[in-house]
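Retro notes, structure queue

What went well: the backlog is down to a handful. What didn't: a couple of records were mislabeled last round, so from now on we paste the full input next to the output in the thread. Example, using ERF family protein from Paenibacillus sabinae T27:
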Amino acid sequence: MSEEVKMNLYQKISAVMKDVEYLSKDDAIEFKSTKYKAISEEKVTSTVRESLIRHGLVILPVEQSHKREDTLTTVDVKYKIVDIDTGQFEMLASSGTGADTQDKGVGKAMTYSYKYLLLRTFAIPTGEDPDKVSSAELDEKQRVESEKKAAEEQKIMKQMEIKWEILAGSLDGFEQWVDGMKKKKHTIHQMHEVLAKKLLEKNKESA
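Corresponding output:
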């Protein structure tokens, strides 16, 4: 009776490539005049996952670094693809960028990174070319968000001037105080909170 021949890591990767020959786009993206079809991370992950399980492969993120510039967060991730039968593994690398004004930038960038790791590692065609659409979309988002942020900061600065004038009787020293707080890495929101607390304390003393 002949023994079953076990596949090595590279043969298993090839088997996944044979299982997942093509993935069609399942998502429609619209942003102002920009419209295009894309493939979702959910579809890529769920489809490839079935084949990974079937062939005894796991992919693990083992190292990650990220940086943020304004609303864009970029991650560089190292992954390990492991053959659970032999312990054989290879290191893989992928990067991703996510746009978010709050704290979800890293998560979005990680999602993008993992999706394209799967697509590129297993050479899965989708007909998708993100380079043709992402720049226009992100540029417009950044412009709108920058204008919104500037308007908000201008409004807060005006409120701070009013509070300072109530506390000090004039605006003398206000700009110097703001510059000093900026050097200490205080945000405009933190500066506003400081003045609001001082004004509250003054009102309590006067009551």
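Agreed that this is the format going forward. Reviewer comment attached to the example: The mean pLDDT is 85.
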